[in-house]
Specification:
The protein is an alpha/beta fold and 486 residues long. The chain is built from 16 helices and 17 strands. The termini are far apart. The structure holds ligand P71.
Length: 486
């Protein structure tokens, strides 16, 4: 028997070739490791805290993980936004920053990359995603308009409301069910979209708001077929589609893995195909594109571009930097190209799936199937004895920090805010704690620590009671609200 390890060009993976020379048999065993396509050049020490220290820190933070100091956190899974590790190429890009006030070379590099990889005609840079959401909402939405979309995102919805619009959720029902194994929970239910058009009329719908990988549903992808169907239906009525492309490459990877006809296409090709089915996009480059800050609005329509370019100078900065330094734009341009590499995505999503599988094996209730940017603990099933008005997800996030110094994020009733008309809490079906994995930052051993900690809290769940809110800010309350333990 002879073993050879060989790179398999067909699958892009390493495989073992086992040669049984005597019997003239060759067996090929594909390894399914998601191992990283990079090695570590620089490290950042983190604080290994004690239970005593964490008790003090979380109390002082009002049991809100957003209010913890980063120095008190061991493994930071609050978000994958702006927290990823840049490559040596991106760091080199920072040194190539052209900090001219107007017409920076880096802006044109970024524009070229966006044309090539995303295909949109015009680029308006912004300081981050919500800057782009603000501009597109103010330009396109009028008082009394409605915005159908595949589940709300906090900042997106707020900007739509502040512009006078009302968000209407048209995502498939499966998205609200943590146990449904449907592979494309980001899909739009086309009957729901048709119903919104019939009820309000196409002229009240400035655009359909479509996110690739739906954050609040658990990082769930939308299928290419569904995108095509949305395009066909909206085209019939002349309605635009605006794409929240914050994690589009992750969505493209899931299409490659799970949708018929896409196994042989690259993540880059699928990404481009997704963008081509829409009229414009808002982007938080802090996710897929692996920069610490940055974003943009991209749009095909010349008139909307004209207005957006006009508006960006009021709120963000000149139209060739939009709140970013030249060096940020260069790092972003490089990061976009890295984000659509198949090897990168296999490792990125593979790591998330690795953590998810450990928790599933232990019987911890999580949103299934595992999405692309994090694991979402199902707090309702985790703490069935804590009613939703006692903030189960908020409580669980605090308990997890107490146990191990792992910081997670509430995505439940606190995030959902209050109903604008009645003033009551919005009670979302999904009451989740998000363990968000930054890209290229943590190791497999870190994932093991996280899994062990969640399992410990799960084993002690009966001793956990809910919390009451003792301070509530008016906007996006989850960022600064404070709580006390019951
Ligand atoms: C995330 C974030 C950052 C965040 C935002 C609000 C509350 C808590 C954390 C930001 C997104 C996003 C999508 C799909 C637009 C934005 C805004 N996500 N769309 O997941 O996920 O982008 O933060 O750059 O302004 O932690 P921005």
């Amino acid at each position: 028997m002879i073993w050879i390890i060989k790179f398999d060009d067909l699958t892009g993976q390493f495989c073992n070739i086992i040669l049984d020379v005597k019997n003239n048999i060759m067996t090929k065993v594909i390894k399914h490791s998601w191992a990283e396509p990079y090695k570590i050049k620089m490290v950042e020490p983190v604080f290994m805290s004690t239970l005593e220290h964490r008790k003090e820190a979380i109390k002082e933070a009002g049991y809100n993980t957003f209010l913890l100091k980063s120095k008190d956190v061991y493994i930071d899974l609050l978000t994958d936004s702006g927290t990823s590790a840049m490559s040596d190429r991106q760091w080199a890009g920072l040194m190539m920053g052209d900090e001219a006030y107007a017409g920076s070379r880096n802006f044109y590099n970024l524009e070229d990359v966006i044309h090539e990889y995303y295909g949109y005609k015009h680029l308006v840079p912004t300081h981050q995603g919500r800057g782009a959401e603000h501009i597109i909402s103010q330009i396109m939405i009028k008082d009394g308009d409605v915005l159908p979309g595949n589940m709300y995102f906090t900042t997106t919805k707020l900007h739509q409301e502040m512009a006078g619009g009302k968000f209407i959720d048209i995502i498939v029902d499966e998205a609200h069910d943590p146990d449904s194994l449907f592979l494309f929970k980001g899909n739009v239910n086309l009957d729901k979209l048709q119903e919104v058009i019939d009820t309000y009329g196409a002229d009240k719908i400035p655009y359909v708001s479509i996110a690739t990988t739906v954050n609040m549903a658990g990082g769930q992808p939308i299928s290419m077929q569904n995108m095509k169907d949305i395009r066909a239906l909206t085209a019939k009525y002349g309605i635009k589609v605006i794409h929240d492309m914050t994690r589009v490459a992750e969505n493209a990877f899931m299409i490659q893995q799970n949708e018929e006809g896409y196994a042989d296409k690259t993540v880059a090709e699928i990404t481009r195909e997704l963008c081509d089915l829409t009229d414009g996009a808002t982007m938080s480059a802090k996710k897929d594109a692996m920069v610490n800050i940055g974003g943009f609005l991209a749009i095909n329509d010349d008139d909307i571009f004209d207005e957006a370019r006009n508006m960006v100078v009021i709120f963000e900065g000149l139209h060739t930097y939009g709140g970013m330094a030249g060096r940020d734009m260069e790092a972003m341009a490089i990061g976009i190209v890295e984000s659509v590499q198949d090897d990168h995505m296999r490792a990125r999503v593979g790591q998330v799936q690795y953590l998810g599988q450990q928790l599933i094996d232990f019987g911890v209730p999580i949103v299934k199937p595992v999405g692309t940017h994090g694991i979402f603990l199902d707090a309702k099933a985790f703490l069935p004895h804590v009613s939703q008005d006692k903030f189960p997800a908020q409580t669980l996030a605090a308990e997890l920090y107490l146990d191990s110094g792992v910081r997670a994020m509430e995505r439940g009733v606190v995030s959902a805010g209050r109903n604008k008309e009645t003033g009551e809490h919005n009670y979302p079906k999904l009451e989740l704690v998000r363990l968000t994995i930054p890209r290229r930052v943590y190791t497999q051993a870190h994932m093991d620590v996280v899994a062990e900690s969640v399992e410990t809290v799960f084993a002690n769940r009966e001793n956990i009671n809910g919390m009451k809110m003792v301070y509530e800010p008016k906007y996006l309350r989850f960022f600064q609200a404070k709580f006390e333990k019951l």
